[in-house]
Specification:
The protein is mainly alpha-helical. The chain folds into two domains: 28-178 and 199-373, no CATH class; 388-520, no CATH class. 59% of the residues lie in helices and 5% in strands. The strands form two sheets. It has a five-stranded mixed beta sheet, with helices on both faces. α17 links the parallel β3 and β4 (438-439). α9 crosses α12. The two termini are 29 Å apart.
Length: 523
Amino acid sequence: MQPIFLDYATETTTSQVFSRLFDYLFYQVFGFMGLSALYLLNVCTILFSAFFAYKMVVKIVPKTVALLGILLSVLSAMNFIHIANYNTKTVFLAVLCAFSLFTGLTKNKLVPLFLGGLIAGFSIFFRFPNVMFLLFAGAILYWNIVKRQKASLFFKQTFVFLLGMALAVGASVAGVWCIDLFSPVSLSFFSVQSGSTGSYELIALLRGYITGILQALANTFPYVLALVCAASTLFVAKIENTVARRIVYCINICVLFASVFYLAKSFDMPALVLVFGILTYIGSVYFLQDKTFEPLFALLFIFGILIAAIPCIGSNTKINHAKLGLFVLAPLALSIIYFVYKQLKTKNKAQAYMLKGAATLLLAAFAFNFVILSGAFMEPSNRLQITSSIQSEKMRGIFTSAFRAEFCNTAIRELSKISNPYMILYGADGIYYLSDKIPYLNRCGINFDSYPKERLQSDLYTQHDKAQLPIVLLPKVDTYSWQRHVIAEKSEKQLIIEEFVRSHDYKIQYEDENMTIYVPVST
């Protein structure tokens, strides 16, 4: 569960200033819903992304195909463990920026380009790696090349886009400065990019991207096998021997069903992203020969790649976050399949129906995986296992795994017995929210790389303005896992907190196989 920062004034020391502020303001309006309010925010963000993406792709993709692709992309984006997360907001801003540029370029208007620049500029304060929104300028270059427009127009359009981006950045900095939050923000705004041992180290990120792409390529084999089986039916009809032709048909069908079954059981989202990307690229190259589709399809392909890639930039999850940004790629990829189907239908109806059946089975496998096997709706584990509830009014209507429910219920029960309002918690930051405790260090997420261990050690011994020493809750298990996994080796930050406990007058208030709760002896 992502940390929920309800006290915005004390919790802006991250590089996601506007994202936290947006979450905070939304919660002030819909907080009566409890945690469901932040689920609602995530759902709304995804649906708005789908709406603006649909408005773009429907220009060249048949409505039914476009809606099917949008549906797949929504299910894919819903299959994400975080709530009210800056990654889904990043994708929404990327879609909105692409929509503005698409409108400005196709209608030859400067105002939408300026708006696109403003969106790109403001996005940086939602998440620092969003500075790569600069890559959207490449779409302006492509459009001017294929349209053979004057260089002066290209420079004018690019200048307007960059001007909007610069003004947005300037306004953001000024706004944060005016509300006296710039100093704490600036301290950690770049910290996520620093720290040689952090998971965001540049070399580690690059290595993760490379291995992630190679792994995804390896996992595309079942998809390729299914496509080969479907395509090979084009040549089976040429076999003159009836028995041989039927045998080959049976083999193809068996292999196709085996591939579908494998995909349903061992689904790999990065592989699907690559398949969509490759299909769309092939379509872009093909349609370059068609004067009707030449500019638009390839332009949308550029936007689709950028929207899928931007949430991966600066992330330590390799290319997994690409699944959040399929709103343009998925409809385009399905339109290629539909185009091939129409070509076959005019030549050989039997082969076309076989391809249609195979595509239907594959889509059914994807949908089954999204909704049941991989969870969907922010739950990464099997949906059938998400049946346990946390005993809190703030969590009504929300279910989780048995391990998480047990951990949270125990923590809430034991913390409710302690009157001390301050707490230090390593991981499982939602416990602050559920137990109504105040972060002793004026921040959650002390296990994040954006909070260096040197600063943790310094802050622990400089919080003397508090009325009393805090409660300390140290998990023995990985609180970010949906099943119970014991921590094999404690982190340096955990050791620092344990040293803080030993150097002060603490006692164990509660201990089990999942956690230890320390309280000051004076409590």
